[in-house]
Amino acid sequence: MVRTGASVSPLRSPQGAATRARVFRLIRFSLLSWACVYFALIAITGLTYVRSMAFGLALLFALWLIAGALWSDGEPIPIPNAYLWTPMAAWAGWSVASYFWSLHPAYSRLEIGTEIGWGLATATIFYVAARSGFAFRAICTTAVASGALLALFAIYLVLANAGADPEKMLVPTHGGVGAYSTFLVLLLPMLPLLLAPRPMGYGSGATAVALLGATFVLLLVAARVTENRMIWPAFAIGFIASAALASWRWRGRLVRAPKRWTAALLVLLVLVGVLFVDAAMQRARTDHRPDASIAQAIADDPRIALWQHTFERIRERPWLGFGFGKSILRTELQGELGDPMLAHAHNLFVSQWLQTGAIGVAALLAMLLGMTWRYAQFLRAPDGALAAIGLTGIVVLVTFVVKNLTDDFMMRPTSKEFWAINALLIGYGLRRASGTLPP
Q: I need a labelling partner for 429 at 20 to 30 A (CA). Which of 93, 167, 379, 435 fits?
């Protein structure tokens, strides 16, 4: 018998549920669209208004979906493992706390908002956006396409102004040689993922392989025109790590074709070795030392004296540091060393130690190890596509760390790229591993 006096809330009715489902679909599409726009603009200097608008809208839609998952009937969002979010929260919290003992509190407050707040918000955007194979492919395609366009523009700028300092050529559009070369280090390991079967990638057809092969060569050429030296050791160690992990995970294929795998690795290592030597010689000529050997040029690198001086500074505050911010001692270091270029520690871990002390370094290492462990779990999965995500994530971390052994680009656009790529890989990987991908 139907109770004629009872009424059903419109929000709880089948029509209301259908309306909510349509709204959530629209929000997910909007998040993906703005996340792609935001990633495409991260590495481009300028266009601040559009990039900020894309960031703000993407974050708004991401938070809306999180709220829907918590308090409505929105699509569930997997919770990251405790060994992922705990060290990340410890690193962020300790960095924020350093404001209270910072040597320059106003500077630390600005850097905390820009690097910690904006960085973690970027991670949230891409972690939520990576809900499906289609979304993963869309963001990866955006990253690779924007990287290819920036590479073409970088090559044009440097070659069209032959003899000019690449740093001056690339600062207005690419953020400078250091930032752009770090972006290349983060992007290059992502290329093979687009050869995964649909919907995660485009498959391994002849067209896809040719396009990605051409993009790989283009990115290497762009890396060379920057004249950055450390990018080549980073690539070399990344190739070795990729080969070692792939030969372990897909050892059956290695057994069937050992010469093919070994030959490919040797060709890549010889290539990056030649490019490193060429870049080092060009850098020596640029620094007006045409007769200096590569070994002498490296020995005369001013960063060696900088590191010695920085460790003397670290001894003054070994546990707490001087306060968050890459250039927290800019004025002091420049005045003491007499070189305007030596404004920070030029090493990811030494820089962290200088800013937030030994406790901050421990938190950073724990965060990187937690991410590595998550990727290692993906690599061990029977799902080949998930294993490829794990391999890519480990290589991204390895190459990023190696590249930043002589600099610190865990800041500004490169830190946002770091958070975006890792959040994308982990977010999609967790959904794939748990079997919660939408149909």
A: 93
Nearest to 424, CA basis, from 144, 20, 93: 144
**Cα–Cα distance between 125 and 422 in angstroms, integer?**
11
**What are the structure tokens assigned to 250, written together?**
């897909």
Cis (ω within 30 of 0) for the bond into 78? no
**Model pTM score:** 0.93
Domain ranges of the chain: 14-77, 139-226
The mean pLDDT values, 10 residues at a time, for the chain of 439 residues are: 44 73 94 97 89 97 95 89 97 97 96 96 98 97 96 93 83 91 96 96 96 97 93 96 93 73 88 88 67 62 84 95 94 82 88 97 98 98 96 98 93 94 98 88
**Closest by alpha carbon to 414, among 427, 388, 396, 426?**
396
Amino acid identity of 372? T
Classify 273 as helix, strand or coil. helix
Question: In this structure, are residues 362 and 318 in contact, taking their beta carbons and an 8 Å threshold?
Answer: no
